[in-house]
Every structure is written in C-alpha cells, then in structure tokens.
From TrEMBL:
Associated pathway: Protein modification; protein ubiquitination
Protein name: RING-type E3 ubiquitin transferase
Domain of life, per lineage: Eukaryota
Residue ranges constituting the U-box domain according to the UniProt record: 4-79
C-alpha cells in the first residue's frame, strides 16, 4: 500500500508522505510542518547533515517534488493508504481530546481531497465541517493554522459555500490572521477574502466588518511580496462595491497604493482604477505628489491590463483638474497616447481617445 510509494516522497523526520516539501539551506528536503517544528524547538542544524543553519533559515518550496507526489497520487491511487471517512476527519478537528498531530493529519487529508473535488467540498459543508475548520484557524500553532486556512480557502471555492462561511464567522477569523498570523497565513487569509468576495452580497458584508479593509491596507504596508499582492487583489475584489471604495480611501489606501505601484506592484493600478471612481478617491490622488508621473510610467511600461487601468485613472483625474492635465503633458503623455492609438486592444484605443479628448477640452494642448 503506502509503502510502495518512493522513499524520496517521505519526510526524513516524520517518515510520512510529504504534502508541502521545502528545501533547507543544507540542500535536503523536508515536509514544511515537520521542519518548522524542528526549528521552532530551537534547533539550528540540519536534521540530516547536522551542519549549522542560519538563525532564520529560508524554507524554499520544492515545487518539482510536490508536483511529482501529486501526479503519482493521481495516477496511482491504489498505492495510497485509504483515507478515513470524512466524518472521522471532521470529528478530530472539533474533539478536545485530539492531539495537534491528529488535527494536522486530518486537515492535510481534507486539504488534498478538497483541492480539485467540488463534490467533496459540498459534502464536507453539508457534514458541518466549517465550525471545526474555523476552530483550528483560531489555534496558535502556525502549521495547524496554515493548513486550516488552506482548507477554508478550498471550501470557499464553491459559490454555494461562500455566504454560509461568512455566516459561520469566517471573516472575523480571517481579519485576526491578517493582523497577527505568519506571513504565509496572512497571504492565504487575503486570498480567502478575494474568494468570498466573488459573491456580490459578501462584498458589502466584508466591508462592513470593523477593521476588515484596515487590515488589508495594513498588510499592504507591512507585508512582503506575496502578502502585498494578495492584499491588493482582495481590495480590488471588495472595492467593486461602491461603499467599500470610500472605506478604503478613509483607511489611507491611496498613497500606499501609489507608492506600491511606483515600486512595481502593478496590481495596485487596478485598485486605484476603482478608487478613482469615487470623489474621495480622486481628491486623495490629487494630493499625492508624483501621482501623475507614476500613472504615466504605467502607460509607458505596464502590461496591457495595467495600461487600461492607467489610462482610465489618469483620464478621471484630468477630467477634474486642469493642473493634472499640464502635469501629464509635461510627463510626455501625448507622445505615449499617439503610440497607443495603434494598439490592437480596443479598450486601450478607446481609453486613449478619451484621455486625448480630455486634455484638449482642458486646453492642455491644441
């Protein structure tokens, strides 16, 4: 049965099949949960070589091995141990007598089973899995919390589950993780917000939660690359609801997004393209020194989608302020627009034409 799987698929510490293989600086691969426990216990040597590790060793995902394990599982299901019944797995999440290792093992099984199987996701929800998963999100163990968040994200992929998860109290848990979780947990929490916000009614509900938008804006400031990108994506998802745009502006999102856009996070222009639709958003953008310069840079160097949002945002601002029209001219926007007129993308041509018309109407150029 499971003993027929290649030995390289097993974690050298737990001897179990790895679900999230990561590489230590020593070059050896371990399951993330196992090596994190080793490090959290104060060890600063490789379990295999016994060589010293840095104070904060980087755990690099071993995507190739993870893919091999996943593909092997799909093509060789008979070589895996049978998975316990869903009811048993769910019970272990809620039982006070279950050890952390038992809960982690149950969550690992459930994450794997729900990743691509929408039918199984619905079945878990019908069996009342949500309270048990949310209870694990509340726990202080980072590995357990990360796995519970991954399962919560999988469950949220089905539209039928999205409203129910919000009603079960998912948002409060996610907001707490956004502020106090590990970097990986914060990134997953932001992704959950994006997933739940697919359903229109959830956009308003999420925005109305105290600190929800504030926590995402805080993550834009304090997070690393993946966290910032996921936070910006979540803001984009919930700010299609008009009231949330004003909330985001009130939380100070505008100058942060412009700064991130200037630093290369193109996802920020998509959020600015929504915030510019409200009066408060436009007013805040006008106050930021160099805003026009950053937007023109997007037109010059951005992707097709970035250019679309950049044109739209700049046009909205220039419509409201003659000073910004002249700033845009000085930054070379006319020459850029002449080139964009030849774009194959119909939206880009249309937005370019609107911006040129706005500049003409404001007498910025003849």
């Amino acid at each position: 049965m499971e003993t027929q799987l290649p030995d390289d698929f097993r974690c050298p510490i737990s001897l179990e099949i790895m679900s999230d293989p990561v590489i230590l600086p020593s070059g050896h691969t371990f399951d993330r949960v196992s090596i994190q426990r080793w490090l959290d216990s104060g060890h600063r040597t490789c379990p295999i070589t016994k060589l010293p590790l840095p104070e904060h060793p980087c755990l690099i995902p071993n995507h190739a091995l993870r893919s091999l394990i996943s593909n092997y599982t799909l093509v060789s299901p008979s070589k895996l141990q049978p998975c316990p019944q869903p009811q048993i797995l769910i019970s272990s999440l809620t039982s006070q007598s279950s050890h952390v290792g038992t809960k982690l093992n149950s969550l690992t099984h459930l994450v794997r089973l729900t990743k691509h199987d929408s039918g199984f996701r619905r079945k878990l929800t019908e069996l009342g899995a949500a309270p048990g998963v949310l209870k694990c999100v509340d726990l202080d163990d980072p590995s357990l919390q990360e796995k519970a968040l991954s399962l919560l994200l999988n469950l949220s992929l089905d539209d039928d589950n999205k409203v129910g998860l919000v009603a079960e109290g998912a948002i409060n848990r996610v907001i707490k993780v956004l502020r106090f979780g590990s970097p990986d947990c914060r990134a997953i929490a932001a992704t959950i917000i994006t997933s739940l916000a697919v359903v229109e009614v959830n956009k308003a509900t999420i925005g109305a939660y105290p600190d929800a938008i504030q926590a995402l804006v805080w993550l834009l400031i304090s997070g690393k690359g993946r966290e910032k990108k996921e936070a910006a994506t979540a803001l984009y998802a919930i700010c299609s609801f008009a009231d949330n745009r004003r909330r985001a502006v009130d939380c100070g999102a505008v100058p942060i997004l412009i700064s991130l856009l200037d630093s290369g996070l193109e996802r920020a222009i998509e959020v600015l393209g929504l915030l510019v639709k409200c009066k408060e958003g436009r007013e805040e953008m006008m106050k930021v020194n160099g805003c026009v310069k950053v937007l023109v840079s997007v037109l010059r160097n951005g992707s097709s989608r970035g250019v679309q949002y950049g044109l739209f945002t700049l046009n909205c601002l220039c419509n409201c302020c003659e000073r910004l029209c002249f700033e845009a001219i000085n930054e070379g926007v006319v020459e850029i627009c002449m080139g964009l007129m030849e774009e194959e993308n119909e939206k880009i041509r249309r937005y370019t034409s609107s911006l040129v018309q706005t500049l003409r109407e404001n007498h910025a150029f003849g």
